[in-house]
Design a protein that fits this description.
alpha/beta, 2 helices, three-stranded parallel β-sheet, single chain, 14% strand
């Protein structure tokens, strides 16, 4: 008899996260965060220079990955 087979798939919890980069974190730190991040992870960067560094790392080491990025400029305390 050709009955239907029901397969139940347990859905995985969402692993997408937000990663906040501090002003002292640069290439090596970004590379470490990207290597352990899942696609869809959103990186929050403090400056335009960090944005530039982010794309250098992304394009050189992780071109196939899909990350989101937000630049959240912070004021420097005087």
């Amino acid at each position: 008899m050709g009955g239907r087979r029901i397969v139940r798939v347990k859905s995985a919890p969402s692993l997408m996260v937000d990663i906040y980069i501090n002003t002292g974190e640069w290439i090596q730190s970004l590379q470490g965060h990207m290597s352990s991040a899942v696609d869809g992870t959103c990186f929050h960067l403090p400056t335009d220079m960090h944005h530039h560094a982010f794309w250098l790392v992304k394009n050189d080491w992780f071109p196939e990955r899909d990350f989101k990025v937000i630049v959240e400029k912070t004021e420097v305390a005087k």
